[in-house]
From TrEMBL:
Species in which this protein is naturally found: Lachnellula arida
InterPro entries from the UniProt entry: HET (IPR010730), HetReg/Transcr_Mod (IPR052895)
Span of domain Heterokaryon incompatibility: 138-285
Gene behind the chain: het-6_8
Name of protein: Heterokaryon incompatibility protein 6, OR allele
Pfam (any one): Het-6_barrel
Length: 754
């Protein structure tokens, strides 16, 4: 499709969207507030002046001494609900940035039912600290700090304030030529050099975004194709909203979509791969914002439009196609499905709106790859959107001697302490994807992005029912205790389990697995390595075969979505590709052939060329997607009894396969000492034991001990809580408590930037 035709297509997609309202930043006098709220004018329900006056009359604001702000940009914050907002003075793009800070309060709350169309509107303004009856309207800014280099400046209250280049670009693009606008910007509105102030401001983040008139999500300056990509996202939902099945790329044009080789797809991928989408803090910024707009240069769309577009792109399989074709581009650097972030954020936003916020551990799993400046913020940055029980159990500390490792261990202990059953144990242990010397082997290291995809736990919906059932019990018995902690040593976790087998052979690590039907004898390196390793087996434990073990292990028994068991058509595609790679038929003992594989050539026989399109092509792409997810950064292993499966990157000969009570996944463990204490290596997939084959009704699960990771790492070096998980709080050393009985959230100093 030519560039002109692509533009015509985008114009046609835009046709259903008429009279799109402009995105207006807040003004100090509230001139834009009524339009933003979708009404003709502010009435007493939106701005109940009498209620505000009554509320203000009950408040007494401490007055700072005149010496407190002498010769300084920042006037002290004296009230627990006080924040600053920045009035950005008018100016052209190239003119010097100028602004002034205003102090206001986000304490006042008043939900208002506007009308049947608009619905309920929460308080979308702050109140001036100079006069608590005066509303202050502001727009919150969500952006990426970028490199911590402060080489740009803004004149603020007569002082020069140094800022990052990314913020400088955002402000120059967002400010107006003819009027001032008001924004809340963490880098300027919080005194980043004042630890006590940051301690007070961090817990206000949720209120700051909820009280904002709207939120500007600045994802950066325009780039080639970014404007077209924004327009595409704005309107693609209209075209795809009734599509529920995967779309074959060959059908794109028939469905009035750009051709697969159109530049718009690369532009779309690059836009969704921008650094903003990798930030941890965007999770609460998006979820808590009432009216968020995504801004790229001069283009903008609503967050809802972006989310709906990504949901539909995922539903019809285009997001997976984008990942397979563009994830190795320079911009994305091997990122996963970029649409899934928006899908997950939108689901979390809906959950928070319906007062059913997720637990903190589930959010940690979902946000595993999100980035932040301080590793402790992997937890602290989610407190505004997790369940109240979890957020109230956390006392946040940025003390230099309180490490991220200590915090992560406390998190795991707290989560497991909320219930001693296998569902929780599975979620925690399948989150381990590391070899970190400063953590017990069973504690997930949230500092590190996953190198693999969890086999036994969905990363998008943690806690969802698994397709595996290695322990043979779909539902753990009520009140049954599947694990305990060592009362004297919190580094030890004591689950119960049964020994299955020992690893006797391992393959090389599969770093970048892929599958193709083009020149399979030379291009299918992963498939050939699988074949060469598994072909060492002449037979397989009954009733299974070597070939069934081969093709199931290639996809870890899952379909392309990762949520269902792999369908039988997978065997047909893999059988076809395997013989094409080996030039043998059959290639493995027990290999199966479908009816259409056995037809004469030219008379309906399934051939490699059929994998380019239609149903065989869709099945091939699902096999490819499932294989890439299952195999990446894992090894194959053969056990002493002749089983084969996928084992963790750090697995080696001598490691043992165990099934833990209550866990639907088997795990690879390594003996540490003569009393058979173990180090957890990770989850594994072993074909032939995944449906409870080794777990008989009368089998005795024995207690085992999981402890520290690397040899030589002493138990004293990892920080743990006291016996009841509570820690003493010293005047200058606030440490976190993970306890069901904690009622207060105490914050200490810490940066909130990425």
């Amino acid at each position: 499709m030519s560039g002109n035709n692509t533009n015509l297509l985008l114009d046609s997609l835009a046709a259903p969207i008429l009279d799109r309202p402009q995105f207006e930043l807040a003004q100090i006098d509230g001139a834009t507030s009524a339009r933003t709220l979708g009404v003709d004018r502010l009435n007493d329900r939106l701005l109940p002046e009498n209620k505000i006056r009554i509320w203000a009359s009950t408040k007494k604001i401490p007055v700072p001494t005149k010496s407190d702000d002498k010769g300084r940009l920042y006037r002290p914050i004296v009230d627990p609900h006080e924040i600053r907002v920045l009035e950005i003075k008018s100016g052209a793009y190239s003119e010097k940035l100028r602004g002034s800070l205003h102090h206001c309060s986000v304490e006042y709350e008043n939900e208002t039912v506007v009308n049947a169309f608009v619905g309920t509107v929460p308080t979308r303004y702050a109140l001036s600290m100079d006069d608590l009856t005066t509303p202050v309207w502001y727009t919150a800014l969500s952006y990426t700090w970028g490199a911590p280099v402060f080489d740009r400046d803004i004149e603020c209250n007569g002082y020069e304030k140094m800022i990052t280049a990314s913020l400088d670009a955002a402000l120059r693009n967002l400010r107006k030529k003819d009027r001032s606008v008001v924004m809340w910007i963490d880098q300027i509105c919080i005194d980043q050099e004042n630890n006590e102030e940051k301690q007070q401001q961090i817990p206000l983040m949720a209120k700051i975004y909820r009280h904002a008139l709207n939120t500007a999500i600045w994802i950066g300056d325009p780039s080639p194709g970014s404007d077209s990509a924004m327009r595409f996202l704005e309107n693609i939902y209209v075209r795809l909203q009734f599509i529920e099945n995967d779309i074959d790329p060959a059908d794109f044009e028939r469905m009035s979509l750009p051709k697969p080789d159109s530049e718009i797809w690369q532009a779309l991928w690059d836009l969704l791969s921008r650094p903003w989408f990798t930030r941890l803090w965007i999770i609460q910024e998006v979820i808590l914002s009432e009216d968020a707009r995504v801004v790229c240069g001069d283009s903008f769309i609503t967050w809802d439009q972006l989310a709906l577009a990504c949901i539909q792109l995922s539903t019809c399989g285009i997001s997976r196609w984008l990942q397979l074709n563009f994830s190795d581009s320079a911009v994305s650097s091997g990122r996963g499905d970029v649409c899934q972030l928006a899908v997950q954020l939108d689901a979390m936003k809906m959950a928070c709106t319906s007062n059913s916020a997720r637990d903190l551990f589930s959010l940690l799993i979902i946000s595993r790859n999100a980035q932040c400046y301080d590793s402790r913020d992997k937890i602290y940055g989610l407190l505004g959107v997790c369940s109240k029980r979890d957020s109230s159990a956390v006392r946040t500390s940025y003390a230099p001697d309180f490490t991220a490792a200590q915090l992560y261990q406390d998190m795991a202990v707290y989560y497991l302490s909320t219930g001693s059953h296998g569902g929780l144990l599975t979620i925690v242990l399948t989150s381990v994807d590391h070899d970190s010397s400063d953590l017990p082997s069973w504690v997930p290291d949230w500092r590190r992005p996953r190198r693999t995809t969890a086999l036994g736990c969905s990363e998008s919906t943690p806690g969802a029912q698994s397709i595996y059932n290695a322990n043979g019990r779909n539902k753990p018995a009520k009140n049954k205790i599947d694990f305990t902690f060592n009362g004297e040593n919190k580094n030890e976790l004591r689950p119960r389990g049964i020994f299955v087998d020992t690893v006797v052979k391992t393959s090389n690590l599969f770093i970048d697995p892929d599958l193709t039907y083009l020149n399979p004898t030379t291009n299918n390196k992963t498939l050939l390595e699988f074949f060469n390793f598994i072909s060492q087996l002449e037979h397989y434990p009954a009733p299974n075969t070597v070939f069934s073990a081969f093709w199931h292990s290639l996809v870890a028994g899952k379909d392309g979505s990762g949520h269902l068991k792999c369908p039988l058509p997978f065997a047909e595609i893999i059988s076809l590709l395997l013989d094409a790679c080996t030039n043998q038929s059959p290639s493995l003992p027990g290999q199966t052939y479908s009816a259409r594989q056995q037809r004469p050539k030219g008379r309906g026989k399934l051939e490699l060329a059929n994998l380019a399109s239609r149903t065989p092509g869709q099945t091939f792409q699902k096999v490819r997607a499932a294989m890439k997810v299952a195999v990446k950064n894992r090894r194959l292993g053969i056990t002493e009894k002749g089983y084969v499966g996928l084992i963790p990157e750090y697995g080696k000969v001598g490691d043992r396969v165990y099934v833990l009570d209550g866990c639907h996944m088997p795990f690879l463990l390594r003996v540490v000492d003569e009393v058979e204490r173990f180090r957890l290596i990770g989850d594994c997939y072993v074909y032939g034991i995944m449906d409870g084959e080794f777990v008989k009704e009368d089998i005795d699960f024995k207690q085992i001990i999981l402890l520290l990771p690397s040899a030589g790492h002493s138990t004293e070096s990892a920080g743990v809580c006291e016996a009841d998980f509570n820690t003493s709080i010293l005047a200058q050393d606030i440490r976190p408590t993970w306890s069901d009985f904690a009622e207060n959230v105490n914050f200490t100093a810490g940066d909130i930037e990425d």
